[in-house]
Model the fold of this input.
Amino acid sequence: MCPQRTPVVICTCDDGIALPSEPTELVNGTKVLLPTLTRATTVSLYVAHSQLAYPTVKSSTFTVVAGTAAKLQVLMPGESWNVFDQTDGRSGSPDALTAGENFNLTVNACDAFWNLRTTDTPSVSLSCDDGVSSLPSGSLINGTSIFTTALMRMTTVTITASAGGYANGVSTTVVVNPNIGKKLQVLLPGECAAPGTTTGKTGSPTERMAGAEFGITVRACDDNWNLLTSAVPVVTLTPSDTVSTIPGGSVVGRHEYVPCYPDPCAFRGIDRGKRSYLHPAGFINLHGNPGCGRAPAGAPAEPVAR
Done:
């Protein structure tokens, strides 16, 4: 005669996230099960016998509400809220942005499982790691709000949302591309490019000795002083003193490559006869170093043809 086996049951949920419980034996025909549910929604539980000796039973429908306030979430254009992704609560990939153009981002107040806290109204501040852009602040409405802003510097950035009582929300890294070409920039020795700022440069010109050669850097920029690396306009330089000569207007028959290091990457300038052409890197350097840094140690020398 075979002894009667103790029933073993498994509990599942229809919230789309919760995993089945471990098989659990009933004791004296009963057992208290402790499912952990992480999605705020309306659900039902299902209990089934592991050997299907008993029919599966469904619980009454009930509501799971969001947990306590835990963290903020920042969604960039191209992304959407997705509570099923327990890693960062979002889906999609961020769109590339254009410097100086407005875009919308969404900030959500969430619990630890990315459920929206629809009753929360925290005051949120936004910041950006590009070093120049100024972002808005404001209160969330029913746990979420859309902020309209613009980034000024061509780079890759993240945006951070902060509020009291919440862990900071950090956006996905997004690419900011330059806008269309609008203006040229001239950098004298002692000045350095500062894309995205009001003036587009830092530093002050250093004194020059009459008759001594020095470097001038010309950059093709968008409205926010971001370098246009594909721009190749023809540039003419004209001094205001009416007597000085500048390459591109009076230097004839000379073809010179001059090393120039105005930015973290090395570029070179080209002076050809009576006109100066912007190098494909987006700018030229005429006759020498522009005073914005020197070539790194070990940098190869460029040939000089005369």
Remarks:
- The two ends are 109 Å apart (CA to CA).
- The chain has three domains: 1-65, 71-177, 179-297+302-306.
